[in-house]
Amino acid sequence: MTKAIDISTLEIGYQTKGYAIKKVAGPMNLEMNKGELVCLIGPNGSGKTTLLRTIATMQNPLGGDVHILGKPVRKLDRKSLSKMLSIVLAEQQVPGNMKVHELVALGRYPHTGWLARLTPTDTEKIRWAMKITGTLNFTNRAVVTLSDGERQKVMIARALAQDTPVILLDEPTAHLDIPNRVAIMMLLRKLARKTGKAILMSTHELELALQSADRLWLIRDDSTAISGTPEDLVLGGKIEQTFNDKSVKFDISSGTFKMVEKGNKLIRVTGNQNELLWTSRALERIGYKITENAQVEMRIDISGSDKTKKWLLTERVEVYEFDSIEGLIAYLRSKEKML
């Protein structure tokens, strides 16, 4: 089966102001299939944007090859490439007085004649792109009036109107609030499934990428890159190796990143899953280390229903009762001040 994107021994980088060539990453061997959502992740400065720009021929590779649907991109002319690949950049400038429909219609430029007249087919493609991205009701609004989340959906609609088998997006969730980040990720995943397009996006939203992507491309600290399902990269320790440092640690049991707290006061906590999780987080924040050792001098037992929930703190033989995590934490902090 022909790969949507096939990268072989690719080395990426750029020319400095002094005309020296700086290698950023590589050599890389990566691939993705049609209908996949692939998230490109890696530490800051690892070359995520440089890789996207190289795939799109906006930058020349230092070595190696990129093929889209079996064709080498370096041999494609600009018009041929624009029918195979569309790109949404993180800071794409758009005239603020342009109407949304006009912006989305720009996606049809590779398919129109030199007069850029829209055919019924072009009009239908534009309408489809706006409908599937939920932007039809923005049709006559000026781009400047859109929120960040709305504007990002419009930019994705323009890429869809271009009707290419491959779509590249550079940090599409940057500057969005949490609901809009999730909405954009769900939209991209749905588009990959429904349209069969290969969608490659760079992101710093690691936890969202782990939940949403069919495959991850991970650029590591040593400038090499690996590919795999999120689950395989997590279980193989690759995510932890790449992103752990002195202040943050990847927790394989929850799939989240946690701040590293140097707690030295041992405490045992028992209760149901949700209360146990959030109580432990609060305790770790104020310097306690959670342990399963039954012999420790301090323990907390969480009991009761939602309306009658109680936190029972046992210190040696003394027992204290609290009806909230806030009350428990306030007591522990006041106790430390008296010591």
- Round the mean pLDDT to the nearest integer and report it: 87
User: Strand order across the biggest sheet?
Assistant: 6-7-8-3-9-10
How does the overall form come out from the CA principal axes?
A: elongated
The total of helices stands at 11
End-to-end gap = 69 Å
- Proportion of helical residues: 25-40%
Question: What is the number of E strands?
Answer: 17
Return the CATH class of the largest domain. Answer: Alpha Beta
Biggest sheet overview: 6 strands, mixed
Q: Which CATH architecture of the largest domain would you pick?
A: 3-Layer(aba) Sandwich
Rounded to an integer in angstroms, the radius of gyration calculated over CA atoms is 25 Å
Structural class: alpha/beta
What CATH calls the topology of the largest domain is Rossmann fold
Name the CATH homologous superfamily of the largest domain.
Answer: P-loop containing nucleotide triphosphate hydrolases
Encode the helix/strand succession as letters. EEEHEEHEHHHEHEHEEHHEEEHEEEEH
Pick out the low-confidence regions. Answer: none
Number of domains: 3
Q: Roughly what fraction of the amino acids lie in strands?
A: 25-35%
Architecture overview:
This protein has 339 residues and is of the alpha/beta class. It has 3 domains: 5-84 and 164-245, Rossmann fold, CATH 3.40.50.300; 98-161, no CATH class; 265-338, Rossmann fold (3-Layer(aba) Sandwich). It is built from 11 helices and 17 strands. It has helices at 48-55, 78-82, 100-105, 120-132, 148-161, 178-195, 206-212, 230-235, 238-243, 273-285, 325-338, and strands at 5-15, 21-32, 37-41, 63-68, 71-72, 85-88, 166-170, 198-202, 215-219, 225-228, 248-251, 256-259, 265-270, 288-290, 298-303, 310-315, 318-322. The strands form 4 sheets. The chain has a 6-stranded mixed beta sheet with strand order 6-7-8-3-9-10, sandwiched between helices. The protein has a 5-stranded mixed beta sheet with strand order 14-13-15-16-17, covered by helices on one side. The chain has a 4-stranded antiparallel beta sheet with strand order 2-1-4-5, with helices on one face. Helix 6 (178-195) links the parallel strand 7 (166-170) and strand 8 (198-202).
